[in-house]
Structure formats: structure tokens, C-alpha cells
Amino acid sequence: MTTSHEAATRDAPRERILETAYDLFAQHGVGSVGINEVITRSGVAKATLYRHFPAKTDLVLAFLAEREQRWTHDFIEAEALRRGDTPTEQLLAIFDVFDEWFHRTDFEGCSFINVLLEMHGHGSEHPLGQASAQYLDNIRVIVRDLADRAGLTAPQDFAHSWHILMKGSIVAAAEGDTIAARRARTMAHSLIDEHRAPAVMS
Length: 202
What we know:
By secondary structure, this protein is mainly α. It has 9 helices and no strands.
């Protein structure tokens, strides 16, 4: 029987590789970071890395999955749900979370957008492009569910429009507009009003 300590020891190199790759890919993009840099910084042998991740694509896919957990769920979704008492407040709180994120010295942009753009020209079937698009779609699902709970009309269309505000504010922040989230939040109020169900006349 494998003990928990043995399992942790066995998985330690993989976790060290992934943690190193996570920091490098998030800050510098996947295209500009080579496998040798990941090996050097993680302190593992090349054979060890390739045992856990046979190709760079496998490592990037693992990074994207980890990014969804840490950024989408543990950061954006969890914070928005914590800060808002109603689904509408939780939707708007996304931009409050963004505002704080945009002002952090380690603001790195959206890895899903970055990888999707880096894969442009590699064909629509490239696994990294497909994975990035799926993780972006998963964000829209979160927004759509909040819109549905808020009683907004056409929640799917709302989610697409809302996501444009989210992605646009991230790009604007990367350009240097540190109040991009506040601008997006103002526009978000108008979008919510457009999707409110009409009042029933008695």
C-alpha cells in the first residue's frame, strides 16, 4: 500500500515542475518560455520533466487547467460570490475584483486570451487553442448562471456581452488603463438594465 508520504514524494517533482511553469507561463506567455528554462528553474532532470509531461503541449494544458482553478474559480468567482449578496451584486463585483487585480504589481493579464492569441495561425484544431477557448467559455457559463439567477432576460446573450466587457477591460488594463475595470463596471450597469425583464402591468 502506498502511504500518503510516499505519494507526496512521488508527486513532488511534478508539482514543482507545474508550479514553476505556472509562474513562467502566466508572466511571460507560453511561446517565450522554453522547456529548458522550466527544467533549470524547477531543479529537475530533463528525463523527470518528460516523464510527467511528454511534450510542452502537455505542460501547457496542465498549466491552463491549473489556471482555471486558481484564477477563474478560486479568485474571480469566489471573490465575486463573497462580495455580493445578490446575483446582480455578484456580477458587478467581478469588476471590483478586476479593479484590485489591475492595480497589483503582478497583474499578468488573462492567460486564456494570451494563449488563444499565441495559437492564432496554428489552426483551429490546435489543442492549446481549443483548451483556451473552452476555459473562456466556462467563464461565460458562470456569468450566464448568475444572470439567470438574477432574473435577467436572454442570459446566454447577456453572458457574451458581459464577457466582452471583462475581456476588454483586461486588455485595456494591459495597455496601462488602470481604471479600466471601473469604466467597464459603469457600462455593466447599462447592460444589466437592458436585460431586466419588463415590469408586469397590473
